[in-house]
Structure formats: structure tokens, C-alpha cells
Amino acid sequence: MDGLGDGVLITAQDQPAENLNRTAFGILQATRTRISKTEYISCPSCGRTLFDLQETTAKIRVRTDHLKGIKIGIMGCIVNGPGEMADADYGYVGTGKGKITLYKEQDVVKKNVPEAEAVDELIELIRLHGDWVEREELV
Q: What is the chain's pLDDT, residue by residue, as a tens digit (139 residues)?
């Protein structure tokens, strides 16, 4: 790293090139050497979390995993969530039973969004700030 390159070459017998490429880009993403996909920041659930963190993260990932270079923080509670997701571009933080607060960076954009509407509202927030791109059609 340290500015010496932004690529990795992985070779393995009997492995499809697609798997090797996905692994190489995953390594580069993890080291923040080359950002090529959406990054999700989330912490394990605690007693303050009033929604299913894994299920919600999966819902958000399905809708946003095609966005490149975007960081989305998904946090379970209002106590630690804002600090934990501080370097994210967008934040989805539990506020209370069935309520979510949405952030753009460290700024609160919408408070007390009903959980049932919060993923759609997050997508709309990303669109509003010009970071949304449509998913490419699979050929």
C-alpha cells in the first residue's frame, strides 16, 4: 500500500476469474486503497436496538449495493449510532420503537421516520444529494 499501487493479482487453479476478481477488489476495498462498491458501516446489535439490524442491513444492501464509493452507516440506537457512523455519507439510525433518523454525513436530515418507510426515505435522500445511479441492466 502506501501509494505503491492500487491492484492485486490473485491466481488459483480451478477458480473462475469472477471469484478471483471479486476477492481482489474486496481486499482493495477493505484497505481503502481502491473503492469500487458500496461500503456498509454497522455495529452489532445491543439492548437499545429496537429493530432487526441484520434484516434491515440486508434490505438496504439489496437496494444500494450497486452504488460505488458510497458509505452507509446502519446503526441500531440513537445513543452510539451517530458517533459510530460519523464518517459515513448517509446514516440510518434507530431513534426509538419503530422510528428511524436519517443523516447526510453528520447532519440530521429527517427524524422519527416510520421504520416501514425508512429504507425508501434513505434511497430518496441519496437521490436528492445526487449520489444515486440506476442499477445497470444485466445482459
A: 566 666 778 888 898 988 888 888 888 877 777 777 888 888 777 778 888 889 999 999 999 999 988 999 999 888 888 888 888 999 999 998 899 999 999 999 999 999 999 999 999 999 999 999 998 754 4
What pTM does this model have?
0.79
Domain ranges of the chain: 1-36, 39-128
**Domain 39-128 of CATH type 3.30.413.10:** yes
Q: DSSP assignment of the chain, as one string? A: -TTS-S------TT--HHHHHHHHHHHHHHTTSS--S-EEEE----TT--S-HHHHHHHHHHHHTT-SS-EEEEES-TTTHHHHTTT-SEEEEEEETTEEEEEETTEEEEEEEEHHHHHHHHHHHHHHTT---PPPPP-
